[in-house]
Amino acid sequence: MIPHSRPTIDEHDVTTVSNTLRTGNIAQGRVVEKFEHALADYIGLKGGVATSSGTAALHLAFLALGITKNDIVAIPGYVCTAVLNAVNYVGATPLLIDIDPDTFNLDATDLRRKQNPQVKAVVVPHIFGLAANMEEITKLGIPVIEDCAQSIGATYKKKKVGSFSKISIFSFYATKIMTTGEGGMVASNSAALMKKARDLRDYDNQPDYHVRYNYKMTDIQAALGISQLRRLPHFIKTRREIANKYHRELKDLCVLPANYGEDWGHIYYRYVIKLRHGLKSFLKLSKEKGINCERPVFKPLHRYLSTPNLPNTDSVWEQAASIPIYPTLTEKNTDSIIQCVKQAIWDLR
Ligand SMILES: Cc1ncc(COP(=O)(O)O)c(C=O)c1O
């Protein structure tokens, strides 16, 4: 079976992690600091605070912005529950926003329609590796947290995602674009926001008491992060090459990922196609043929919360399939994936 996603680990990663283990300094230390600088430099920001996960990074971002239980936080309905969890960690109320059915990103028009004075922030994931429409979203004047968990290295007009808002977050979970096993980062140009996030991440050796967390990354993870970050441009290049091959081969059979040309630097964290009918059968058939295709979002958030329908989210969820795309796929693998997808679509006609 060709897995839906896999990390890309090489001998350099293994050596770097082993060398860190040999130093005996394996909790949060100098290597974490180095990783924070390297990542912030890569995005073009002044600072970063590494965390134990992307969810922890989101939680710290909310706390740094002062979001509390009387506030509302807008989030898209088509995203994993990690985002909803972080809103609930601070006791705020989630406001679910519909998506643009072509890009799968948060729809600025729906956000404008639902905007009210209690909305203190909006989380904008650049979903599946494609930048959201930040020009439209930032016009609304709501503080934005860019969620780059799926999109490190993606660009809009040559500017990297994560640099369009006051604060942004990243995830380095095993199957993300680059990994530290588990891990995350909050990043910003604001020294004050970074100071707050840093203070809350670690409970030890503090002069005063207030609730703090243990959201630290270890030097072992950071060593892997530094090694992976060096190869990130190569990971992105390979993903784009595979995406181009899929575009060529599948263009007449299904709706391909949105492509708006030069300005939008998609990094293809996911290659998501839309089928006009038969999604469940397609997923079953592809598994039977040895390719693990999945729904890219397990379940829309309004279906967990029983809140009003989000029509675009629902229609995308009924049609969207994510087919394997990652740098370790061989030419033979991608040929088999294309063959399998074509066959499954033909079988369903
Ligand atoms: C858009 C988005 N935000 C946040 C997260 C949470 O990241 P983590 O799994 O590192 O906690 C994820 C994880 O998949 C994600 O896809």
Which terms summarize this structure?
12 helices; binds pyridoxal-5'-phosphate; 2 domains; alpha/beta; globular; Aspartate Aminotransferase, domain 2; 7-stranded mixed beta sheet; single chain; 349 residues; 3-stranded antiparallel beta sheet; 12 strands; Aspartate Aminotransferase, domain 1
SSE topology sketch:
Layout: H1 11-23, H2 30-43, E1 47-51, H3 54-64, E2 72-76, H4 81-89, E3 93-97, H5 108-114, E4 119-125, H6 134-139, E5 144-147, E6 155-156, E7 159-160, E8 167-171, E9 184-188, H7 191-201, H8 219-250, E10 264-265, E11 271-274, H9 279-288, H10 301-305, H11 311-319, E12 320-323, H12 331-347
Parallel strand pairs: 2-3, 2-4, 4-5, 5-8
Antiparallel strand pairs: 1-9, 6-7, 6-10, 8-9, 11-12
Helix pairs in contact: 1-8, 2-8, 3-4, 3-7, 8-12
Bound molecules: pyridoxal-5'-phosphate.
The site of pyridoxal-5'-phosphate has 14 residues, from helix 3 and helix 4.
